[in-house]
Amino acid sequence: MQTTPDPVLPGRLVAPEPGWVTRSDVVVVGSGIAGLTAALRIDAALRARTDDDGATVLVVTKDVLNAGSTQWAQGGIAAALGPGDTPGQHEHDTLVAGAGACDLDAVRALVNEGPAAVQELIALGTNFDHHDGVLSLTREGGHHRDRIAHAGGDATGAEIQRALIAAVEAAPPSRSSSTHLRSTCCAPSTVRWPA
Ligand SMILES: Cc1cc2nc3c(=O)[nH]c(=O)nc-3n(C[C@H](O)[C@H](O)[C@H](O)COP(=O)(O)OP(=O)(O)OC[C@H]3O[C@@H](n4cnc5c(N)ncnc54)[C@H](O)[C@@H]3O)c2cc1C
Asked: Cα(29) to centroid of ligand 1, in Å?
């Protein structure tokens, strides 16, 4: 009887040689809403330091800057921004809708930090939908208040991604502090894993 030999498994995986090499004090991996927000916040904190030593921030992403989930988010962002609304009410609605599946700490971070995060996105240049100069908020499943902010109707994520990329690209490559942001989409090659 013929037997099939056992497959030989590699003892370790060998990464390909890097396509390019650079140095940076902070590396942020990913260029969606999380990565670009983190990069912009770190950049701002570095620039505000009085003992500025020219520290740099580098955003590394596996594809073009807008290739992640963020640009596809369509349903808007929920935050307790409307009249009479509070993070406590948002927390209650979230826990009821979550039916026991929620991480309470995560929910509390979301509802308490959400309003300021939306305002931060607006300050960065995100064009959320407004009516008569007031932020438009819709009421959607599970929410007992008008609390969903949209941009361009159902193009919320695309508008947020656009605004964040614009904010990163508008960060001057060097000020007196010489802090700067770089994205791999502007570099000669990109980091891809798996290749
Ligand atoms: C169709 C759709 C609709 C959605 N609708 C909503 C909504 O209405 N409201 C809402 O709040 N949320 C919605 N979401 C969820 C929301 O889009 C995500 O929660 C959010 O965008 C996550 O942001 P992020 O920055 O963590 O991830 P992403 O935007 O996905 O960014 C991840 C980044 O990491 C990079 N990356 C991944 N792997 C590697 C690697 N190995 N090396 C280097 N870089 C890597 C990617 O290229 C990308 O730049 C929706 C998502 C989808 C897909």
From this structure: 12
Name the residue of 28, 58, 70, 162 to mutate for ligand 1: max ligand atoms within 8 A of Cβ: 70
Q: Tokens 């809403």: give the residue.
A: 33
**Which tokens hold the place of 166?**
């614009």
Q: Is 35's C-beta closer than 6 angstroms to any atom of ligand 1? A: yes
Q: How confident is the model at residue 190 (pLDDT cuts 50, 70, 90)?
A: very low
**How many residues belong to the chain?**
195
Predicted pLDDT of residue 17: 76
Tokens read off for 6: 């056992």
Domain ranges of the chain: 21-71+158-195, 75-154
Instruction: Locate the ligand 1 atom nearest the alpha carbon of residue 78 and give its number.
Output: 11
* pTM of the full structure: 0.86
Task: Mark 185-195 as b/e (b = at least 16 C-beta within 10 Å).
Answer: beeeeeeeeee
Q: Give one DSSP letter per residue of 17-29, joined into a string.
A: PPS-----SEEEE
In short, whether 33's Cβ falls inside 6 Å of ligand 1 is yes
